[in-house]
UniProtKB/TrEMBL annotation:
SMART domains: 7TM_GPCR_Srsx (SM01381)
PROSITE patterns: G_PROTEIN_RECEP_F1_1, G_PROTEIN_RECEP_F1_2
Transmembrane helix listed as a keyword: yes
Localization of this protein: Cell membrane
Keywords: Cell membrane, G-protein coupled receptor, Membrane, Olfaction, Receptor, Sensory transduction, Transducer, Transmembrane, Transmembrane helix
Cross-referenced SUPFAM superfamilies: Family A G protein-coupled receptor-like (SSF81321)
GO CC, alphabetical: plasma membrane
Protein name: Olfactory receptor
Amino acid sequence: MDLTNCTRVTQFILLGFPHTWGINFALFVIILLLYILSIVGNGLIIVLVKTDSRLQKPMYFFLSNLSFLDIWYTTAVVPKMLANLLSRKTIICFYCCMAQSYFYFLFGITEFYIITVMSFDRYVAICQPLRYMTIMTPRLCLQLTFAIWFGGFCTILLQTVLVVNLPFCSSNLVNHFYCDIGPMLKIAGGDSNLIEVLGFLIAVAVILGSLLLTVISYIFIISTILRIPSASGQRKAFSTCASHLTVVSILYGAVLFMYLRPSVMHSSFRHNKVVSVVNTVITPVLNPFIYTIRNNEFKESLQKALGKKAVSFPKL
């Protein structure tokens, strides 16, 4: 397309879900409640880890980073989605859309990195328990955290710059409830093959790369646990990893479905919207419960913070 004859759009219309007032209002209430639970749950983890000396450990340090990511990951999308559910004018400005897309993928990619580092932390704790504190030093934890955030910032930057410079002229209808790159490429003019290939390579490197490292860590972890002579010792070791494995399964299952495809131009985004709701709304709510519901240290820390004698959780 000739950019000299192209009048670029200044705003996009997010098509979201079919607009039916009763359904949209019900979705608004449900998603708002889940969003509040996500903010409160993840915020509580951050506060407890920061204020309780018993939680000043590498595992909880990385968990608080994951909670921080979850808060901003869902905040990048949910407030605008809530506003659109109650409005027929589902408009977002061009650069607002690009910013939303960048931060959504920045926090999402960084979450894969933190999940991988958390699996490495569990590997060291179980396979090298006597060397754990000498390996997972505060300095190394800070260095890993910096590398995680810097890696997330750089990974998605080039693709975002390329998308911003595409000629969006013929249509401004984005078939999603947020500015996902796939639906935007579908309405963009010009040649987007390079961006598609780059996006696919990023998905392979980040998703499959981090998954492979996580799986390798857990192969060593499981083999070490199976060599523990006592059944109670095995159960205790497995319990420290169960929450992380649950989060890994939910997270990777959703994103493998949405993004690990060689082409987005001829894809239908109907199913992606449903999976995206799970990924952006439900998963950030589940993470605090998954990580803390069977964790005695967190229970005791919450008990201390609330000034109560006991905090009970329902058994799963």
